[in-house]
Structure formats: structure tokens, C-alpha cells
Amino acid sequence: MNGQKAQQANLALATIAFSLCFAVWSLISPLASQFQKSLGLTDTQTALLLALPVILGSLARVPMGILTDHLGGRRVFTALIAFSILPVVFMGFANSYAMMLVGGFFLGMAGSSFAIGVPFVSRWYSAQSQGTALGIYGMGNIGTAVAAYSVPWIAANYGTRYAFWVFAPVLAVYAVMFWLLAEDAPSPPKPSSLAQNLQLVRRERLSWVFSLFYFVTFGGFVAFSIFLPKLLVDWFALSKTDAGLRTAGFVVLATLARPLGGYIADRIGGARLLALVFGIGPFLALVLAYEALAPQMVAVTLAILILAVLLGLGNGSVFKLVAQYFRRNTGVVTGIVGAAGGLGGFFPPMVMGAVHDLTGSYAIGLLLLAVFLVGCLAVDVVGLVIRQPKVSADEPPPETRRSAA
Predict the structure, then answer these.
(1) What is the DSSP string of 29-75?
(2) 20 to 30 A from 240, CA-CA: which of 78, 128, 171, 401?
(3) Would you place residue 321 in the very low, low, confident or very high pLDDT band (cuts 50, 70, 90)?
(4) Residue range 36-54, pLDDT digits in tens
């Protein structure tokens, strides 16, 4: 297989693997309202059930990124896909809140897949093409839409347990396919030791800046993806299927915007594109906070869909910057930044559930989103757009240094 065909084949394999893992990571969300009703859960308890898979998927990204740097994406991705079969099967037997919390926690491992695919994909591409390639890989977020669309229908027609079990044979088949067909990039950069990785993260402020940006952009995407079905049911009394379909629209739009974000970032710089995202985002969050008082379908739909585009563009931009500034240690920095993004998806549902229990409205949670976006705008403009920092001591190749934003 020649170089270009190998690039394309491995990008496709990784994107499908990421999509499948993301679908597994999102299996609980479309059924949250059903579980709340059948188990008599409060909004806070339901929010914990929704958010728990996110916490492990976030924290596991750090070791998974390190493992990928040392063992290669082919091995680590195959092992993760195979492992995900266990919690999927377990959730089909879960019949109590405690069992669902346990199963949901381990479903979260599938969410760590992002930290495997970024170094796996980026090493197949030059610096000038990494933003586009990683944006395409990020389209694996579409797995969330697959879950939002399919799970309510399967549960309604065949029972809740089969909404989980149907994914087990798919995971098994694809684990074998990925092992047989995927290849690690030839001559990958020599990874740093664990001590060097920790020192790098402590020393390099950009890793924390990118973590903040991803905490808000990807965290916002995840939070809306898992909480939007419940929010729409609460605001407009939609059916679970209707709410799931509308959430799938949000996910699809954000997913399609992600490769566009990488493409634009390749040309104008990720920092400049993020300034646009963080400049417009607060206004949309304020619109939603206002609508929380007396929601109207048209206004909410427009604000949500525009926000989906912005979050997708932001996601694509951040990992253009990660691959650009941290070529030799892409895995570990991806793990750190990806963990921050996942945590950004964990806390908002918890906050939204608690705020709704206390006040009967989601407005305060949406106001906090606006505040975070304004803070990111200030950091991006002052720290990256104006200062234009040099590349880190990670020492990317010369072509990356010339293209630094």
C-alpha cells in the first residue's frame, strides 16, 4: 500500500473506530428520561447517571495517550474496542440505579478513544495537513448521533437491554477488523519517558491553555449531547424519540463543522479561528439563558444549531494547535487536553441538574457557559493571537515551526 493510500485507509479505520466508541460512550443519554421515570430519580441523580461515563472517559485519556505513544495506536485501539464489549453486555442486565452507575462508569472507557486516535492519525500526515486530517477523524463524534437516533427506537421496539446488546457483536467484529487492517505510521517519533512527559506538561503552559479551550469547546459539545434530550423534554414536553432526533441534529452539525474547523485552522491559524468561536459563543449562551425563563422552540433551535457549529469549529481548531506545538508527545498532550475536554462534559450536566432542582430553571447554568466563553476569548487573544508564542521545547519539525500561528 503506497503512502497516500495508507494515510487514507488508516484515517478511515480510526474514524470508524472512534465513531463506534463514541456511540457506546453515549448509550445512556437517550434513555435518561425513561430511567428517571422508572427508577424514580431526581434531576441530580439523573445528571450523575449521565455524567458518570464522562468522568472515566476523561481521566482515562491521559494513560491511553501515553500508552499510544509507547505501544502504537493499532494495539491500544484494538484492546479498547474489545474491552468495551464488557460494559455493553453488563448494562443489558442492569436493573437498579447502583448497577447502572457501575455499568455507566465502565462505559466511559470508550470515551478515552479520542486520545488514541489523535496521535495515531496525526503521525500519518504532515504539519500542513494535520488540522484537516484530525478534523475528519473528529467526525467520529457522529457516534453520539447514532446512539441518539437508534437507541430510543431499539428500546421501544425490542426492549431496553437490546439497545445495549446490539452493539456487542459490532464491537467484536470491528476489533478484529482494526487489528488486521490498521497500521501504525512508519518511523514514529521516539516517545518521552513518563518522567519527561510529566515535566513537559508541568513546564509547557500551552498544554494548559489548550486544555482550557477544549474544556469549553468539547465539554460544551458533550454536555449538550448528553443533556439536550432531557432539556428538550423538560422545556417542550417532547417524546424521547423526538428529543433524540433533535439532539442528533445538534451532534451531526457540530461533527460536520469539526473538519471544517481543522481546514480553516490549517490556513488562518487555530488561535484566530478560536477567537471567532469565543467571540460569538457568549451571545448564544445568553440567548439560551433568557429562553430558559420562557422557552420558544424557534429561538432555542436557532441558538442551539449555531452553537453546534461554533463548538465543532473550536474542536477542530484546538487539535490543530496540539499537533502543531507537540509533535513528539502528541499522545500525552492529547490525553491531558482530551481529559480536560471530557471533564468539561462531566460538570455541566451535574450543575444543570442541581440548578434545576434548586431553582426550577436552567438559566444559571447557561450564564456560566457565557462567562467561560468570555474568559477563553481573553486568554486566546492575549496569549496566542497577540503574543504568538514560539513552539514549545517539544521541538516539532521545521515545517511546523514555520506554520506556527
Answers:
(1) GGGHHHHHHHHT--HHHHHHHHHHHHHHHHHTHHHHHHHHHHH-HHH
(2) 171
(3) confident
(4) 888 888 877 887 888 788 7
Pick from 235, 233, 404: nearest CA to 321: 404
- Give per-residue pLDDT as tens, 183-213: 988 866 665 565 666 666 667 778 889 989 9
Biggest alpha carbon distance in the chain? 60
The whole-angstrom separation of Cα 7 and Cα 184 is 10
**What CATH number has the domain bearing residue 153?**
1.20.1250.20
Cell of 257: 463543522
Please give the radius of gyration of the chain, using alpha carbons only, rounded to the nearest integer. 20
Q: Rounded distance, CA 277 to CA 272, Å?
A: 9
Which whole-number Å values give the CA distances from 377 to 238, 277, 278, 346, in the listed order? 35, 8, 5, 22
CB 378 within 8 A of CB 221: no
Cα-based angle 63, 119, 380 (whole degrees, multiple of 5): 90
pLDDT at 109: 92
Residue 273's nearest CA partner among 401, 121, 377 is: 377
How many domains does the chain contain in total?
A: 1
Measured CA to CA, the distance from residue 343 to residue 111 in angstroms comes to 11
CA separation for the pair 163, 143 (Å, rounded): 14
Task: State how far the Cα of 124 lies from the Cα of 134, in Å rounded to an integer.
Answer: 11
Which amino acid is located at 219 in the chain?
Answer: G
- Residue 10 — very low, low, confident or very high, per pLDDT cuts 50/70/90? very high
CA distance 204 to 214: 16
Spatial separation of the C-alpha atoms in residues 136 and 49, rounded to whole Å: 30
Residues 6+ apart with CB under 8 A from 211: 336, 337, 339, 340, 341
- The whole-angstrom separation of Cα 107 and Cα 86 is 9
| Domain carrying residue 120 | 3-184+193-402
